[in-house]
């Protein structure tokens, strides 16, 4: 069989499973997730053996040890993965929630109810734990899932999906609801991106180039996630101590993640007081500052920033910096260079906070708080499939409700329509 | 200037206007809409003259009189268009609505607030009233709009957009918020479809081929609207009188719209009793029935249905019909041939209604009611930009809130994050 045929086989299997899974209530889904969690722990040796193949191949290929560590699975990590599945089982089920409803003037009973999206395709890089996390979140929200992980974790992913499918086969949830996209080539990603009608939504998780290529090529609707060029703006009215703490935390607490700060902007009125202390504090935290001309004057260690620095998501202990003459200039800078993920203002001024939150057009805007709080766990969602940086469907951290659509149900007693055509009536046709 | 440069000019103007419009509160937007309504009425002669150019061209081109009538604008129709704009001004503003919010355990105050999408592109066919309707709905929801109407209405649309822009120039709403995409060629649509970053969402309104081509080619996120292959399923437990009334209403009350029924299915147990009466009632209403073999036996006037009939959105006084052996067979038929717009069941059985609403995966599911009620006006939205048949972002009739996104705002007092990495923390990176 060709890779294309292989793909169609698993996609149709997922579609069929989705049909069975969609109307399923919470209890059998939770039971199935707990069976999956137990099965993963029971299969620890098998998973570790499969993972060793990936780790050996990575090492032979000269992959850096830090990356190999991200790839590695051991008994402790597998136990944590299984525990995360049990936590998903404990979360409320978004499916069936009545979002809106009313009795219309004519007596029709109308309600809008959450339903699963159907089949979700997830394209991701890196750690094999995502294979299980994503599958658990999709199952819980009544969706079948097509997983397309990194080729570097292919052996691990084959083992994990096989174990999950075997576990599901002992439950009411159809085993076909979790599928690995077969193949390692770029073609196998293309099959997924062109599977309109079979796949309801694609969620790419990873670097900017992966996400851009999916957005460009996919005919399946896409939810963009994760690119985070986040800013901290230190206003003229900022409390200096607060600004220092937030800046260092936003940059250095965990620099490799999407909600870490990549640029800070400081109002000219406070730059003279703030910058020497900020540069010192960042240096203490091991951070290299790439500053514009007005920043460079305040410290010997500042690397002159190029235009590109302001557009870069470093994901490292580097930060770009600029002095701005007004809050509006800060907002304009963020609009120009940012990725509309999370941007923060530090200020004591209510007016400045109000203007910043109203005019910065990002998924999240923080006032006197670190950008690092933009996270499904921190927001109390209990789980997160990614952070959407697009405006359609979901924006910001995506929990279980963001993996659903809705359906309108209306009930009458022989209601027929006799009203004349309205301006809204399928207008345009 | 080339058409591409012309397009970029209006798209950038719309983008700039969107930035000003987005944080604007309700009052100035409503005022602007009322100014626009008055300006349209005041410019009746100018609009009628521009429209006459389109009407003459259509007539010379041999366009059918029914289509020419859809295109024609007169004083009465212009007054109605203006009145619809005033009605939009009277609707609540979705922007600024707090959708969710809480104080997190650490004291961060978190809220999710509705914000405009930004720049909305609308591609539509037919009637020039859509030019004004769509502009009013976009402005009210804080969005700039790029309008790409039918070339058959190009003169009318130029006049309408010019009048709206001139009216807006006398208000606080930037005149650039309403833009006509320049040019008449298919290329001008392509510019819109490739304007990722400048345009936030595209809404195609029209026939299936328009919508499919936009979905295939657009890199801008798309909301699919309007294709309606709607079904009426007459269950074994249906009340015959109710079923007849609903069937005739769903098909014949207004056959040219997307929520009209295009197929009816009848359970074998009731077919013998129902079909002769249904065929007679449909004949009386001027409807041609295209039936499968089991339907053909019940009436001399039934045209034998081909496979294609069941997949067709007639939008005329035609309906396909089939006998099914069970509710599940009816659902399977709808899943195979339907467009996931609206499907209805007629039944006295609570169990059948429950199973049908749970397993039919459509934007709207009706119980003992005509499919014709799937409409923003009927649902009480006050206005409708279209009916989404996709699952992402919006499903079913789209009112003003469906033209918005959300933004998370969190406020602290120097909050920094010290929690360790969680499983959800930008997972996959």
Automatic annotation (TrEMBL), chains A, B:
Which pathway does it serve? Amino-acid biosynthesis; L-proline biosynthesis; L-glutamate 5-semialdehyde from L-glutamate: step 2/2
Q: Which Gene3D superfamilies match?
A: Aldehyde Dehydrogenase, Chain A, domain 1, Aldehyde Dehydrogenase, Chain A, domain 2
* Catalytic activity from the UniProt record: L-glutamate 5-semialdehyde + phosphate + NADP(+) = L-glutamyl 5-phosphate + NADPH + H(+)
Give the keywords, sorted.
Amino-acid biosynthesis, Cytoplasm, NADP, Oxidoreductase, Proline biosynthesis
Annotated Gene Ontology cellular component terms: cytoplasm
SUPFAM superfamilies, per the entry = ALDH-like
Q: Name one GO biological process term.
A: L-proline biosynthetic process
User: Aldehyde dehydrogenase domain location, by residue?
Assistant: 3-288
Protein's cellular compartments = Cytoplasm
Q: Which residues form a coiled coil?
A: none
For the keyword Oxidoreductase, the answer is yes
UniProt KW Cytoplasm keyword = yes
Q: Name one GO molecular function term.
A: NADP binding
The catalytic activity of this protein is classed by the Enzyme Commission as 1.2.1.41
**Annotated PANTHER family:** DELTA-1-PYRROLINE-5-CARBOXYLATE SYNTHASE, GLUTAMATE SEMIALDEHYDE DEHYDROGENASE
Question: What the protein does?
Answer: Catalyzes the NADPH-dependent reduction of L-glutamate 5-phosphate into L-glutamate 5-semialdehyde and phosphate. The product spontaneously undergoes cyclization to form 1-pyrroline-5-carboxylate.
The family classification in the record reads: Belongs to the gamma-glutamyl phosphate reductase family.
- What is this protein called in UniProt? Gamma-glutamyl phosphate reductase
Organism from which the protein derives: Sphaerimonospora thailandensis
């Amino acid at each position: 069989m060709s890779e294309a045929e292989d793909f169609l086989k698993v996609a149709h299997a997922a579609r069929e499973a989705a049909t069975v899974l969609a109307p399923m209530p919470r209890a059998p889904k939770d039971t199935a997730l707990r069976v999956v969690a137990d099965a993963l722990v029971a299969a620890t040796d098998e998973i570790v053996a499969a993972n060793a193949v990936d780790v050996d191949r990575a090492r032979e290929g000269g992959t850096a040890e830090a990356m190999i560590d991200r790839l590695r699975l051991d008994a402790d990590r597998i136990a944590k993965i299984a525990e995360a599945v049990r936590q998903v089982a404990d979360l409320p089920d978004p499916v069936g929630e009545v979002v809106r409803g009313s009795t219309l003037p004519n007596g029709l009973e109308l309600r809008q109810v959450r339903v699963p999206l159907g089949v979700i395709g997830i394209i991701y890089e890196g750690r094999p734990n995502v294979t299980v996390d994503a599958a658990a979140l999709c199952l819980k929200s009544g969706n079948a899932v097509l997983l397309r992980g990194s080729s570097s974790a292919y052996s691990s992913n084959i083992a994990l999906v096989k174990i999950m499918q075997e576990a599901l086969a002992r439950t009411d949830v159809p085993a076909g609801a979790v599928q690995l996209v077969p193949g390692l080539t770029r073609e196998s990603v293309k099959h997924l991106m062109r599977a309109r009608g079979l796949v309801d939504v694609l969620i790419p998780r990873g670097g900017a180039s992966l996400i851009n290529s999916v957005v460009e090529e996919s005919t399946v609707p896409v939810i963009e996630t994760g690119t985070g060029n986040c800013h901290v703006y230190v206003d003229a009215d900022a409390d200096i101590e607060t600004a220092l703490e937030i800046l260092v935390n936003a940059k250095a607490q965990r620099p490799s993640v999407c909600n870490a700060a990549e640029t800070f902007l400081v109002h000219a009125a406070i730059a003279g007081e703030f910058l020497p202390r900020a540069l010192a504090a960042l240096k203490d935290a091991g951070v290299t500052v790439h500053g514009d001309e007005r920043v460079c004057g305040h410290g010997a260690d500042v690397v002159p920033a190029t235009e590109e620095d302001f557009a870069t998501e470093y994901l490292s202990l580097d930060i770009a910096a600029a002095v701005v003459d007004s809050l509006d200039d800060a907002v304009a800078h963020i609009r120009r260079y940012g990725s509309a993920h999370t941007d923060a203002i530090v200020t004591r001024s209510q007016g400045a906070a109000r203007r910043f939150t109203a005019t910065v057009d990002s998924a999240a805007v923080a006032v006197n708080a670190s950008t690092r709080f933009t996270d499904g766990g921190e927001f109390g969602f209990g789980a997160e499939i990614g952070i959407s940086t697009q405006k359609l469907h979901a924006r910001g951290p995506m929990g279980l409700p963001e993996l659903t659509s809705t359906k309108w149900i209306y009930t009458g007693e022989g209601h027929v329509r006799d009203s004349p055509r309205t301006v809204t009536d399928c207008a345009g046709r």
